[in-house]
UniProtKB/TrEMBL annotation:
This is Bet v I/Major latex protein domain-containing protein. It comes from Papaver atlanticum. One of its GO terms (biological process) is defense response. Residues 2-158 form the Bet v I/Major latex protein domain. It comes from the Eukaryota.
């Protein structure tokens, strides 16, 4: 039986409301190439309505190296009350190293002392390695943090 591994990362994002950020990742993920064109080449909806459980997206992106990757992700669960999205990678380059790759993203509102809107983004990843020589997917976790910060900055500029 394969061993399941877990990684967690969290980012506190200033000047960004939890509702705005959650809405972007739930409803507007196809706009990622406009926000981060140096990372995302395209995000297209292959199945579903784009923002609910059952949605399947094809994502073409770069991880910071020169290589471009493709992944097909499926949204498994959407819980608006807790601003939680859970999904799994069902096809693509990442599955060569990690045959199982699932994630949960939760966005929690924070109120700063000055009354500014901020939020905490928690990303948990559950994965299985192809073999023990495969490194932990820290590169993807770091990329996620970069994406959250860039989207928060983009949303702050729109406000």
């Amino acid at each position: 039986m394969a061993q399941i591994h877990r990684l967690h990362v969290q980012n506190e994002l200033k000047n960004c409301s939890a509702d705005q950020l959650y809405s972007f990742f739930k409803n507007e993920r196809t706009k990622l190439p406009q926000v981060l064109p140096h990372i995302f080449k395209s995000v297209q909806i292959l199945a579903g309505d784009g923002n609910s459980a059952g949605t399947v997206r094809l994502v073409k992106f770069s991880t910071g190296t020169s290589r471009e990757e493709i992944m097909k992700e499926k949204i498994e669960t959407v819980v608006d009350e807790s601003r939680t999205l859970r999904g799994s990678i069902i096809d693509g380059d990442i599955l060569r190293m990690y045959p199982k790759f699932e994630y949960t993203m939760t966005i929690t509102p924070l109120v700063t002392q000055g009354g500014e809107e901020s939020c905490l983004v928690k990303l948990s990843v559950e994965y299985e390695k192809e073999n023990e020589d495969v490194p932990n997917p820290t590169e993807y976790m770091e990329l996620s943090s970069l994406i959250y910060k860039a989207v928060a900055s983009h949303l702050a500029k729109k406000a």
